[in-house]
Amino acid sequence: xxxxxxxGRGGQGGVTLxxxxxxxxxxxxxxxxAFGVYAAERxxxxxxxxxxxxxEEITNHNQIREPDHVIVLDRTLIGPxxxxxxxxxxxxxxxxxxxxxxxxxxxxxxxxxxxxxxxxAVENGLGSRTxxxxxxxxxxxxxxxxxxxxxxxxxxxxxxRFVGPNIAAAERAFAVVDAKxxxxxxIAAAAGGPMAPPTGLFDDxxxxxxxxxxxxxxxxxxxxxxxxxxxxxxxxxGNDIQGFVAAAREEDFDRALGILMETSPLPAVCGxxxxxPCMDACNRATFDESVNIRELERYVADHGTWKAEKPQRIxxxxxxxxxxxxxxxxxxxxxxxxGHAVTLFESSDELGGVMRNGIPxxxxxxxxxxxxxxxxxxxGVEAQTQHKVDRAALLKMSHTFGAVFIATGLxxxxxxxxxxxxxxxxxxxxxxxxxxxxxxGTMSIRDEHVLVIGGGNTAIDAARSAKRLHAASxxxxxxxxxxxxxxxxxxxxxxxxxGVHIEELVSPVSLQLHEATPCLTCQRMKPGEPDAxxxxxxxxxxxxxxxxxxxxxxxxxxxxxxxxxxxxxEGAEVKHEEALLGLTGAPVFCGGDFASNDGTVSAAIGSGxxxxxxxxxxxxxxxxxxxxxxxxxxxxxxxxxxxxxxxxEHGPTIDTKLRRHTFEEVHxxxxxxxxxxPAVAEAERCFxxxxxxxxxxxxSYCPEGILMRDNDGYxxxxxxxxxxxxxxxxxxxxxxxMAEL
Length: 741
What we know:
Blueprint: E1 2-9, H1 14-26, E2 31-38, E3 46-54, E4 69-72, E5 91-95, H2 104-107, E6 111-115, H3 117-123, H4 135-145, H5 150-159, H6 165-176, E7 178-181, E8 220-224, H7 230-234, H8 241-249, H9 253-261, H10 267-273, H11 277-281, H12 293-303, E9 319-322, H13 326-337, E10 342-345, H14 354-357, H15 366-378, E11 381-384, H16 391-398, E12 403-406, E13 412-413, E14 428-430, H17 431-440, E15 449-453, H18 457-468, E16 473-477, H19 489-497, E17 501-503, E18 506-514, E19 517-530, E20 536-540, E21 547-551, E22 554-557, E23 561-562, E24 588-590, H20 601-620, H21 656-659, H22 678-683, H23 697-701, E25 707-710, E26 713-716, H24 726-730, E27 736-740
Parallel strand pairs: 1-4, 4-5, 5-6, 9-10, 9-12, 10-11, 12-24, 14-22, 15-16, 15-22, 16-17
Antiparallel strand pairs: 1-3, 2-3, 6-7, 8-27, 13-23, 18-19, 19-20, 19-21, 25-26
Helix pairs in contact: 1-4, 1-5, 3-6, 4-5, 4-6, 5-6, 8-9, 8-12, 9-12, 10-12, 13-20, 17-18
């Protein structure tokens, strides 16, 4: 008599395979018996099936304890249990793409045959990719190992009405099955342990984990990982947004500020002027409203406490930083924290660069900027103002310092060839010069009609500042549509609320006097095909009324700026975050808008930090760069139905009529009223995407009770986990995922 044991899972056709093997031998005139034993009536649960073949009538109906041969249909069931009771010369036939020798550790000295039945079944459309039915494929392999002819296989399949792709799959397996004796010392069969005594009603063991380790049922297992929150990924400064928001949720604003200061020394600035790409990326945006991250950063920076700690200095000539804008301040701050002696050079008499003279006080008050700069200086940065650096000075610095970082921003304003009257009046000026004079208090445009040409943040700032200086009218002339303006959306809306009018699809042509009154002649445009920026290119209209005049007393050009490269050594090659090539004595790096022209404070802060990391690695060999980011926790990772729809918190703003006549800060930020803390309430809206916050939903919903709290979070007891996946489907943040075994 030949006895076979088949190990499989529900849905793979293990019992049917037993019947097919029995059918093949029955058609050859042998007595045959086939039956199965299920562990549970569900797909994926482990099962065993048995086959007996004999020349005599079979009267034994017990389960097989000492099989002659073993067949394993699922690779997750391959293991020591397959040897239980197996005869020494018995075959172990495995559904596996690996050759027999790959199982030397488990089945040394044993007769092993392998066949990739799963792939063959999928190729022939038997079942699905997730649940392939491998019984007919395995029949072909079994027949070859047991010296049956393929005609016997085909006859058995046809008798049980398995035709077409079933026969093709069996024939393929019959041809390619790999069978051999695995080299090595024979591994003896595992002995079974004694059975546990039955549990009484009042037994102390009631409530313990069951004696049967049902984890062997699993075809997959839950695992935990931390993903990158989309806000973190989108932040140009590299801030741990999820981390500082979580600290704010716990009302620990000091810790929240400390988290921000790890990457950005200007959180109060960014909390006021950043365009907040993190909020655009927020997964909550499609649920109700994005988390108001910018307002939270401002609140944390204004209410948290952070004390600078001066690190031990690294021996060496130190690092020179040229330019005190956001990139220069960021680089100086981080280099000082790394232990370098840093000297900051600024051509103006005040530090801050474009943040001081290019952003109006109604957006960024000077005392806020001063407070942030003081923190940077407290780390140990030495600053020298009224110190302009040209090419000769740069060359000298390169022989004095260990490295030089250039972050002079965009010094060269783009102009526009306007034919303008030659009567000695200043009709046209650059937007950045206008804002600088506004900052200095030397600009007077009362009752003037002002035209601002451009669509960026400088144009919006100039227009809103002109309204505050009591201009009679302010109009922005832009050759594209309002939707295509690169300025911050909220600033555009605020400008319109304050009385600024936007002339869309209009391009200036010339400036001339009409009856002693300046007029800007413009041409109407229309959207064309997308250009390199991805926006529709403005195309001039050719109609009779395409040209028209706009009365004005002053034209402010805000067409963008470019870096002044005259500071660089001749032959230098400008590369973002890389050393410049030149005749310098020390490596020269550049960053911020000088290198990349990203145009935002947050991007410049991130650029300065990366430059500091590069410089530190160049000078010391120490790599402090953060590890590569984990995949982003996108909307598909989130289980949003568990959250409650809650409107976003917003701080108050000054009344529109009042703000037109004052440079007082428009946005007041979150204000606590004793009954309500808007910052905490807003932080509580954060989904904490991709990061576990200990909500315990996985524990609460686990049907097996195999999830346990551990020191660093949670732990799975895989001995009893059946891989149902309930924990993964209930995890709101995509932290738990299922992996196939």
